[in-house]
Design brief:
The complex is a heterodimer.
Chain A lengths: L3 H4 L32 H13 L6 H13 L4 H14 L5 H14 L4 H19 L2 H14 L12 H12 L20 H21 L4 H19 L3 H19 L12 H5 L45 H4 L5 H21 L3 H11 L5 H17 L6 H6 L4 H7 L3 E2 L6 E2 L3 H24 L12 H6 L18 H19 L1 E3 L20 E4 L4 E5 L1 E4 L2 E4 H8 L1 H14 L12 H12 L48 H12 L3
Antiparallel strand pairs in A: 1-2, 3-5, 4-5, 6-7
Helix pairs in contact in A: 2-4, 3-5, 3-19, 4-5, 4-6, 5-6, 5-7, 6-8, 9-10, 9-11, 10-14, 11-14, 15-21, 22-23, 23-24
Chain B lengths: L9 E6 L3 E6 L6 E8 L2 E2 L2 E2 L6 E3 L4 E6 L3 E7 L3 E5 L4 H23 L16 E5 L6 H14 L7 E4 L12 E6 L32 E4 L9 H21 L1 H4 L3 E4 L11 H14 L4 E5 L2 H11 L4 E5 L10 H17 L27 E6 L3 E6 L23 E3 L12 E6 L20 E11 L4 E6 L8 E9 L3
Parallel strand pairs in B: 10-14, 10-15, 11-14, 15-16, 18-23
Antiparallel strand pairs in B: 1-8, 2-7, 2-9, 3-6, 3-8, 4-5, 4-7, 11-12, 12-13, 17-22, 18-19, 20-21, 20-23, 21-22
Helix pairs in contact in B: 1-2, 3-5
Classes of the chains: A mainly alpha, B alpha+beta.
Chain lengths: 661, 488
C-alpha cells in the first residue's frame, strides 16, 4: 500500500531531504581527507589507544573514533581488527559501547566498514550476547533491529545472511526452519519474544519522542495503544496474529520513519542534562535529539524516525480489512487497535511542516534557566572584578589576565576548530552539541563532494531582522523564548490553513489500491492510508479535480499564492540543500521571503519567463577550479530550488504549466 | 615532531609569551601554519592544535600567543619575523571593558539584582565605532574584538558592521554590510577578511556562512557620493534597531563598526567626514569611539563627542603593513573571485591536505553560473551621474542635471553603457508590493541579493552574458551598477 519508491525509509542517519536530489548530480565516492599521514603501524597503535578510552557510552569518544575511521577509510581493516579484538578482550560491561561504535561506523561511514565488519560480526555479536546481562541484551536487540535497515540503501547493514544468523541466534530457532528470504518478512515463524522486542522498541521511541514534546496528544494515543497491544501479545495470541501485528507494527514504524521530522528539534528536557555527565549512564542523553541525523540512531535512545524495519511488506500479507473477517474477539480488538494506530499515524504521518515548526516556535522551552544563568552569573562576577576604565591611559597601563577568560575558564576545546567551551555542565552540553554539528557537517561534506556548491543570495531585510541571535550552526546559544509573538501567531495561522488542506482526502477507487498514483503537480506519489471512520483506504491531502487527483496543497498552491508560502516553508524544512545552511531553522523566515518573491513584480520592471535564459557551455578559461554550471531549461528548475529566492517563481510557473486549465 | 617529508621546507618557531610571528605573502604563494604546542591565535581566532592552517592571496597576518607556543610554518613568506611589541595587552583591556558592559546589559535585561557599588554604572552594551587613518589596522582591531567576544563562552553574537566600501566585508567591494557573528572569524586571505557569506555548502563554522545585510554603494571611496553613503548607513542603522526590537538578548552583545580611513583623514572636506561620522554615531547609537593611533583625530573626536560618549585612543600595531593602491586593486579582485568561486588556496608544497579552521577545503570551492539573458530581463540603473563633481565645485546657483541620489536607467544597447565587465548589484525585490506605498528613491533603500558580472554584450541580438553566484534566476530583477569592474 505504501509506495516504496517514495516512502521507503531513508537510511536512518540521512536527512529526508537528500532523497529528492536529481540523479545527475550523483556524487562520486568521497575521497578521504587525511590530515596527517600515519603509517599503518602508527595508526594501529593510535587507534587502539583511543579505543581503550571507550569504557563508557560516551558520545564524544564514539563520535571521535568514528570520525577517525571515516577519515582513514583506507585503514579500514586495521580499524576492524582493533575493534574486534577490543570487543573480545574487554570485560562485558565495556562491550556495549564498543558495539555502539561498530554500529556508528558501519551506518555512518558504511563503505568499506560494513563489509569488513560483516566478516566477524555474527560470532562476535552472539558471543557477546551470551555473556552480557539482561539489560545489555535488550539494548543489543534494539541495535540489532536497526541493523535490518541500517545500510544507506535501507537494507541489512551487514547483509541478509549475517542479519539472519544473528537474529536466529538471538530469538531462537523458531525462525530457522523458515525459508531464508522470508525470515522476518512475515511468513516465517515468529516468536512472541521477537514481537515483544519490536513492540518494546517502538514504544521506547515513542516515549522518548513524547519526552521532547509533552503535549503531543497523538503520541500519547500511540503509546497507550501500543501498551494495550503489548498486553494482548503477552497474554498470548496465535501465530497468525503475531504475524499480522509484526507486519503492521513494522509498516507503522516505517510510515513514521518516512515522516520528515520538522526542522526545529524538540527542546532538551530539563532533568537529564542536569545530571550530565554520569559516566555510567548507559543511554547517553539523546533525549535531546538536537541532531537527528548524526550518529544517534544506534544508541539506545533513538530519535523517533529511526525505523525498525524496511522490508517490503510481503505480497502474501493479508490486508487489514481482509483479516478483520476473522471472528475471534481478540483478533478484532487487535485489529481495531491497529487501525487506531494506523489512523493516528495517518494524521501524524502527514508532514505538517509549517504547523510543526510553528508549534515548536511557540512551545520552545527555555533551557534549564538556572544553569545558563548560573554560568553567566559567575562569569559576570569574575569579569566585573577587574577594574578597567575605558580611557586611553587606563587601557595601556593595566594588565588584566585576559587569558583567564579566553583560555583558563574555557577548559574544553574542540579539536577540530579550536573553539572552547566552559568546563561547566552547561558548557559541556554545548560542546556536545558543537561536536555533533561537526560530525554532521563532515558527513554532509563527504556526501556532497562533486555536487558543486554556490554562493547563496543574501537574505532579505525581513529575514535578517528576524534571524535572532541563536547560533544556528554551533548551537552556541540555547534557543530560548524570544519575543516573536507576532511571527508565531502568523506561523500558527499559516499552519492551520496548511493543516486544513492536508486534512482533505479522496477515497481510493476499488481495485486501485495497488497502483501508484502521483500528483500531477509535484509528481510525488500519494500515500494511501486506512481511514477508520470511513472504513476506506484514502489518499490524504488530496483533491479530485477534472478526474485527476492532486495534492490538496499542490492544487491550492497552483490556484493561489497563499499555499505557495506553505509549500516553500515545507520545502525549506524538508530539503537539506536549501539555499542557506540556516534555512531549516529559519522556517518561518523563509516563508516571509517567499511571500516577498511570489508577489508580482512592480509594473516598472518587466518580468519575462525563465525560459529565456539560454544555455551556455562552461567556459574553459576558468583555471582556478570552479566548474560553471549550465543553465539548461525549465526542466531543471526543480534542481534550481537550492539556489535561492527565484526558485519560488519557477515553481509557480511549473505548477501553472501543468494545471489542466 | 614527525616531519611530513624529506624535501619540504618547514620551520619551527618558538614564540615567547606575548609575542607574535608576523608574515607577508607574495602573490601566488601560500603558507601553512600548524600549532605544535601551546596556545596561539590569529587576530583573536584560536588555532586548533596540529591542524595546518592555510594562508594565501597575499595575506599579511600574525600568529600571536599569550603564553608561548611552538608553531611549524611551511611555505615561503616574503617577510617573516617575530615581534615582541604588540598592542595586544591594550586590546585585551578593551575586551574586558566591553565584556563588563555586556554582562551589565544582560543583567539589566534579566532584571537581576544590582549590587550597591554598581548602581551608577550604565547598562548600555558596547556599541563601538573604530576610526583611524589608512594602514592603522582598524579592521584587525574590529576582528579581534569580535573574536574575543564570541570566544567568551557567553553566547554573545555581536554585530559587525562594515562601512568601508573598499573593504567589501562579506559582500563584494562597494557594499556596506552588517552581520551577526557567532563563531570566531578566520583569517586566511584578504579575499574574505571577515569570514564568508553563506553558501549552499555545508560549513562547520558559522563564520563561513554569515548572513550579512548588504547595501550597494558601488564605489571604493566614500567621497564619491557621501550623500548615498550616509543614506545607506542610516538604513543599516534602522534595520539594526528593528533587529534589536526582536532580539533583546542579542542586543546585549553590542556591535562594532569598521570604517574607511577617509572618515579619519584625507583630502575630502572635513565637513563631509564629520557628517559621515555623525551619521554612524546616530545610526548605530555609538557609545564608544576607538581612535587607532591618530592623535589629531582623537582630539577632534574628544572635542565633538566627549560630552555624550567615550572616546578612547588606542595604540596601533607595529605589524601593520603599508599597502599601496595596486595591492588594494588586487584585493578587490581576490574578493570578487572569492565571492564567485569560493576560497581557493593551493596548499604549499609538502602539505597534502589542510583545513581552514576546521573546514573541509573542498566545501569552500564554489561554482558560479554563467547565463545569457535578454536586455529586457534586467532593469539596470546607476545612482547619480557617472562622473560627479563635488557639490561645492559647482558654480554658485547651479543645480545638478542629475542629483546624487537619482536612479538613472541604463540602456545596455547604447554603446558606452559601461556594462561590460561591470560588477552589478542585484537588489532584493521590494518588500512593499502595494503600488501606492512605493516611491522614487526606493531603489536606494533596497538591500543587495547578490552580485553579477556582465561578461559579454551582444547588442545586435539584445542579449548579454552574466556570471551569477548561483543558478537562481535574475530575470525581472533590478540591478545597480557602480564603478567596479572585474575580469577573471
Amino acid at each position: 500500500m505504501y509506495s516504496q519508491q517514495q516512502y521507503g525509509p531513508p537510511p536512518s542517519f540521512q536527512q529526508p531531504s537528500y532523497g529528492s536530489y536529481p540523479s545527475y548530480y550523483q556524487p562520486p565516492p568521497p575521497p578521504p581527507v587525511p590530515v596527517y599521514q600515519p603509517d599503518p603501524v602508527t595508526f594501529r597503535r593510535d587507534y587502539s589507544n583511543q579505543l581503550a578510552e571507550l569504557k563508557v557510552n560516551s558520545r564524544p569518544i564514539i563520535q571521535n573514533l568514528s570520525m577517525i575511521a571515516q577519515e582513514f577509510a583506507r585503514f579500514s581493516e586495521i580499524v576492524a581488527q582493533c575493534l574486534e579484538s577490543h570487543i573480545r578482550r574487554v570485560p562485558q560491561w565495556m562491550k556495549l559501547p564498543a558495539f555502539y561504535l561498530l554500529d556508528a561506523i558501519s551506518k555512518n561511514v558504511y563503505e568499506p566498514y560494513a563489509r569488513n565488519f560483516a566478516a566477524f560480526v555474527v560470532p562476535l555479536f552472539l558471543e557477546t550476547y551470551s555473556q552480557v546481562d539482561e539489560s545489555t541484551r535488550s539494548k543489543m536487540e534494539e541495535m540489532l533491529i536497526t541493523w535490518r535497515t541500517g545500510s544507506p540503501a535501507g537494507k541489512e547493514l551487514f547483509g541478509v545472511p549475517a542479519q539472519m544468523a544473528i537474529e536466529r541466534g538471538v530469538w531462537g530457532d523458531g525462525a530457522s526452519s523458515s525459508p531464508a528470504n522470508s525470515f522476518y518478512s512475515g511468513s516465517g515463524q515468529i516468536t512472541k519474544t521477537q514481537v515483544l522486542t519490536e513492540l518494546e522498541f517502538t514504544l521506547n521511541q515513542k516515549e522518548r519522542a513524547l519526552q521532547g514534546n509533552l503535549y503531543d496528544t497523538t503520541l500519547q494515543t500511540h503509546i497507550s495503544v501500543l501498551h494495550q497491544l503489548r498486553k494482548l501479545v503477552e497474554a498470548g495470541v496465535s501465530q497468525e496474529e503475531l504475524q499480522q501485528i509484526l507486519t503492521q507494527l513494522r509498516s507503522l514504524v516505517r510510515s513514521v520513519a518516512s515522516t520528515p521530522t520538522p526542522a526545529p528539534p524538540p527542546p532538551p528536557p530539563v532533568a537529564p542534562s542536569v545530571s550530565w555527565p554520569p559516566p555510567q549512564q548507559s543511554s547517553y542523553p539523546v533525549q535531546q535529539p538536537a541532531f537527528p541525523p548524526a550518529p544517534a540512531p544506534t544508541y539506545p535512545s533513538f530519535p523517533t524516525y529511526d525505523n525498525v524495519k524496511t522490508e517490503t511488506p510481503p505480497s502474501v500479507l493479508p490486508s487489514a480489512s481482509a483479516a478483520a473477517s476473522g471472528s475471534s474477539a481478540a483478533q478484532n480488538s487487535i485489529l481495531s487497535l491497529l487501525s487506531t494506530i494506523k489512523k493516528v499515524v495517518g494524521e501524524n504521518g502527514t508532514p505538517l511542516g509549517a504547523g510543526a515548526s510553528s508549534r515548536e516556535d511557540v512551545k520552545l522551552e527555555p533551557p534549564p534557566p538556572d544553569l545558563e544563568r548560573e554560568s553567566s552569573r559567575s562569569y559576570r562576577d569574575a569579569i566585573l572584578m577587574h577594574d578597567v576604565k575605558l580611557s586611553s591611559t587606563d587601557i595601556i597601563r593595566k594588565r588584566p589576565d585576559v587569558v583567564e577568560f579566553l583560555y583558563d575558564r574555557l577548559a574544553a576545546q574542540c579539536k577540530q576548530c579550536g573553539i572552547r567551551f566552559p568546563d561547566t555542565v552547561f558548557g559541556k552540553k554545548r560542546m556536545e552539541d558543537h561536536l555533533d554539528m561537526h560530525f554532521k557537517q563532515n558527513r554532509k561534506a563527504n556526501q556532497n563532494i562533486g555536487r558543486g556548491h554556490s554562493r547563496s543570495w543574501f537574505v532579505g531585510v525581513e529575514d535578517w531582522v528576524h534571524d535572532v541571535s541563536v547560533d544556528v550552526k554551533g548551537k552556541g546559544r540555547e534557543a530560548g523564548v524570544r519575543p516573536m509573538n507576532a511571527k508565531a501567531a502568523a506561523a500558527a495561522e499559516v499552519a492551520k490553513r496548511d493543516a486544513d488542506l492536508r486534512a482533505q482526502y479522496v477515497v481510493v477507487p476499488r481495485g486501485e489500491e495497488a497502483n501508484p498514483v502521483a500528483c500531477p503537480i509535484c509528481k510525488e506519489q500519494f500515500k494511501s492510508e486506512f481511514l477508520d471512520d470511513e472504513e476506506e483506504w484514502v489518499w490524504r491531502n488530496a483533491v479530485l479535480k477534472d478526474e485527476r487527483v492532486y495534492h490538496a496543497t499542490c492544487h491550492a498552491e497552483a490556484a493561489n499564492g497563499l499555499a505557495l508560502r506553505l509549500r516553500s516553508e515545507l520545502a525549506a524544512n524538508l530539503r537539506s540543500h536549501s539555499n542557506t545552511p540556516e534555512a531549516a531553522s529559519m522556517g518561518s523566515v523563509v516563508a516571509a521571503r517567499a511571500g516577498g518573491v511570489s508577489t508580482p513584480p512592480p509594473s516598472g520592471l518587466k518580468i519575462s519567463d525563465t525560459l529565456r535564459s539560454v544555455s551556455l557551455s562552461p567556459s574553459p578559461e576558468s583555471k582556478l577550479v570552479g566548474t560553471k554550471r549550465k543553465v539548461d531549461d525549465t526542466d531543471h528548475s526543480v534542481s534550481d530550488e537550492a539556489e535561492g529566492t527565484p526558485r519560488l517563481k519557477k515553481m509557480a510557473l511549473t505548477a501553472a504549466d501543468s494545471m489542466p486549465q | 615532531m614527525a616531519s611530513e617529508g624529506a624535501s619540504i621546507e618547514s620551520k619551527e618557531w618558538t614564540l615567547d609569551p606575548e609575542t607574535e610571528y608576523r608574515f607577508e605573502l607574495d602573490p601566488g604563494t601560500s603558507l601553512a601554519v600548524k600549532l605544535i604546542r601551546g596556545h596561539a591565535e590569529v587576530f583573536g581566532a584560536e588555532l586548533a592544535a596540529n591542524k595546518p592552517y592555510l594562508f594565501g592571496s597575499e595575506c599579511k597576518a600574525a600568529i600571536f600567543t599569550w603564553r608561548g607556543c611552538i608553531i611549524e610554518v611551511t611555505g615561503q613568506p616574503s617577510t617573516e619575523y617575530v615581534s615582541e611589541e604588540t598592542p595586544m595587552a591594550a586590546y585585551a583591556n578593551l575586551h574586558i571593558a566591553f565584556e563588563q558592559m555586556r554582562v551589565r546589559a544582560l543583567r539589566n535585561l534579566r532584571g537581576s539584582p544590582v549590587p550597591e557599588y554598581e548602581r551608577e554604572k550604565s547598562s548600555d552594551p558596547p556599541r563601538v565605532l573604530v576610526l583611524g587613518p589608512e594602514n592603522s589596522g582598524k579592521t584587525t582591531v574590529c576582528k579581534l574584538l569580535i573574536n574575543y567576544a564570541v570566544r567568551a563562552g557567553q553566547g554573545w553574537s555581536p554585530l559587525l558592521i562594515n562601512t568601508d566600501p573598499a573593504e567589501g566585508g562579506w559582500a563584494a567591494p562597494g557594499a556596506l554590510s552588517a552581520a551577526p557573528v557567532h563563531t570566531p572569524l578566520p583569517t586566511c586571505s584578504p579575499g574574505n577578511p571577515l569570514g564568508a557569506a553563506a553558501t549552499s555548502a555545508p560549513t562547520a563554522l558559522s563564520s563561513n556562512a554569515l548572513l550579512p545585510l548588504a547595501y550597494w554603494y558601488g564605489h571604493a571611496e566614500s567621497k564619491r557620493n557621501p550623500l548615498l553613503m550616509e543614506r545607506i548607513i542610516r538604513n543599516i542603522g534602522e534595520n539594526i534597531n528593528d533587529k534589536y526590537q526582536v532580539d533583546l538578548q542579542g542586543r546585549t552583545a553590542g556591535l562594532i563598526v569598521d570604517t574607511p580611513s577617509s572618515f579619519a583623514s584625507g583630502p575630502g572636506s572635513s565637513d563631509e567626514r564629520q557628517r559621515l561620522i555623525k551619521a554612524c554615531v546616530d545610526a548605530f547609537k555609538i557609545n564608544v569611539i576607538l581612535v587607532v593611533g591618530h592623535e589629531k583625530l582623537n582630539v577632534e573626536m574628544q572635542r565633538t563627542y566627549a560630552s555624550r560618549l567615550t572616546v578612547v585612543k588606542i595604540p596601533k600595531s607595529g605589524g601593520v603593513v603599508e599597502l599601496d593602491h595596486l595591492y588594494r586593486e588586487r584585493v578587490h579582485n581576490y574578493q570578487l573571485h572569492t565571492y564567485m568561486y569560493g576560497q581557493i588556496i593551493p596548499p604549499p608544497p609538502g602539505i597534502s591536505s589542510a583545513s581552514l579552521g576546521g573546514e573541509t577545503l573542498s566545501d569552500l570551492v564554489l561554482s558560479p553560473s554563467s547565463t545569457i539573458i535578454n536586455f529586457d530581463d534586467l532593469s539596470i540603473f546607476r545612482i547619480g551621474a557617472e562622473t560627479m563633481a563635488p557639490s561645492s565645485a559647482l558654480p554658485i546657483g547651479a543645480a545638478r542635471a542629475v542629483s546624487e541620489t537619482q536612479a538613472v536607467p541604463i540602456d545596455p544597447a547604447q554603446p558606452g553603457s559601461g556594462l561590460l565587465n561591470a560588477v552589478l548589484a542585484v537588489l532584493a525585490p521590494p518588500v512593499n508590493t502595494d503600488e501606492s506605498e512605493r516611491y522614487d528613491e526606493e531603489i536606494l533603500d533596497l538591500p543587495i541579493s547578490g552580485f553579477i558580472i556582465v561578461t559579454n554584450l551582444d547588442i545586435p541580438h539584445r542579449k548579454m552574458t552574466i556570471l551569477a553566484p548561483n543558478q537562481g534566476s535574475v530575470v525581472g530583477r533590478t540591478a545597480v551598477i557602480g564603478s567596479f569592474e572585474w575580469q577573471e
